[in-house]
Specification:
Length: 125
């Protein structure tokens, strides 16, 4: 378990440096360790999934990123509730990914939901 954060940080560093092929095995290992240590629906797993999903997005591997973004959304909804501002962000990222996959109708639906969450969180004037 103590290995999770350093591995994730090293994987993220490789991402930042553009060494994506070196980042992937580290991030995959981080996800596997976190799933085993924290559970498959743990909030502690979400940041590790985000790192891997972002890597796949950087590599234009949207079909691989999409299920990870969906899993992140489910984890956050269970941990934070369906109207939390972070959910709006998750929905936006997933919508962008779906657009890249040509799933415009699904993306539109998610964006509408994200907008509703943001508007709900705005103070009334």
């Amino acid at each position: 378990m103590a290995l999770v954060d350093p591995l994730n940080q090293l994987g993220s560093l490789y991402q930042t440096e553009g060494k994506l092929e070196k980042a992937e095995p580290l991030l995959l290992r981080t996800v596997a360790i976190a799933e085993k240590s924290f559970g498959k629906e743990s909030m502690a797993l979400a940041p590790r999934l985000e790192s891997l999903a972002y890597l796949y997005s950087q590599q234009q591997r949207f079909a691989e990123a999409e299920p990870l973004y969906r899993k992140i959304l489910v984890i956050h909804e269970k941990g934070l509730g369906t109207d939390h501002p972070l959910i709006a962000s998750d929905l936006g990222i997933l919508a962008t990914t779906l657009r890249k996959l040509g799933q415009t109708a699904d993306a539109d639906s998610l964006e509408a939901r994200a907008k509703a969450i943001r508007e709900k969180g705005q103070p009334k004037q």
